[in-house]
Amino acid sequence: LWYFLVPTLQLIAMLMSSTRISVLGAVGITVGMFVLYVLMCLWNKKKIQISKIIAMCFMLVIFAIFFVNSPFELRKKVEGINISYNNIQDDKKEEKKKEVPIKKEFKNEEEKYQYIKENAEAGILNEAFTNEIYPYQKDPDFWIHVVNEEEPWKYAENRGLKTLLLARVQERNQNPMDKYLGMSFMKISSFLWPERDFQAQYYYLGYIGLILLILPYVAILLYTVIRVLLNLKEKCNMKHAVYIAALLFGLVAGYYSGHVLDELFPTVYLGTIAGICLNNAREEKELMEEPEEEEGTLKLQETIAKWKEKVPVYTGKKKIEKEK
Questions:
Q1: Can you give the pTM of this predicted structure?
Q2: Which tens digit of pLDDT belongs to each residue from 34-72?
Q3: Is the dihedral angle over the CA atoms 14, 20, 23, 24 positive or is it negative?
Q4: Is the dihedral of CA 264, 270, 275, 278 positive or negative?
Q5: Contact status, residue 59 vs residue 11, Cβ threshold 8 Å
Q6: Distance between CA atoms of 280 and 236, rounded to whole angstroms?
Q7: Which range has the top average pLDDT, 68-77, 158-167, 187-196, 292-301?
Q8: Can you tell me the distance from the alpha carbon of 257 to that of 198, in angstroms, rounded to the nearest whole number?
Q9: Residue-wise pLDDT tens digits, 131-147
Q10: Please, what is the angle between helix 140-149 and helix 109-121, to 10°?
């Protein structure tokens, strides 16, 4: 029961978080485990247990029931409305954009300010960024470059605009060591936080810090995969496949999203999984074979029955036998 209940609750919890990486990850993990189980059974020539297949199907059914009224589905509907609204606004922006001609020569700073304000009012630039996050008065040349030189898709979305801003801050810092040692966590977190872990770690740790942080996970993953490939007969089983998949999924999630490799609890889990992978890979011989469910249950019951026969039951009275 617990082997069914715990994963099901975990799937529902991932759905309730309503982020794309958690919802897609929940579906991907369940389907991936189903495929891995079938492949491992075929590889090791074991009987596929129908009960496990049914349990996975039930988990997906329960997940689908909760998905219909989940925060993620509500978010999709809201985003769908926003997309329709944004499409209407985009048409208006295109009309306004035609009204704002591209200008590359300016007589003074006031003309630069006016040009940036016109583009922000036309919706070409996000006013929250130009007025509050990175005021155009401090660096008008940057915003003019964004409008005139960069592709629209790079600054139309907040993620792309954050990347352009962080690159500009690194450029204006004029410190060649920033690429290798980073600009510090405090400076980046107080300005803009990228929504991807690898990108964030590059800007506040640099190439060297990023390598030191990520390399152990990648090295353990590659080492485990190589050890399994070199000893397929003993190590190609469900246990190794699950831990390798978990470690790989954690790194992929950190690359495409944020708050995976920078938060305490996810890092603790990922480090624990990496340690288990390393320990499993270094085992010269498997300590315990994976028994079939029916056989394992029967052996356990037989062992308990024999143990009860051998262990004396305490009756509260002591029997003293005298040898003559």
A1: 0.70
A2: 888 888 888 888 888 888 888 888 888 888 888 887 777
A3: negative
A4: negative
A5: yes
A6: 11
A7: 158-167
A8: 9
A9: 888 888 889 899 988 88
A10: 50
d(CA 51, CA 43) in angstroms, rounded, equals 19
**Residue found under tokens 């005021």:** 135
- In the numeric block, which tokens belong to residue 228? 């399994």
Instruction: State mean pLDDT over 262-283.
Output: 88
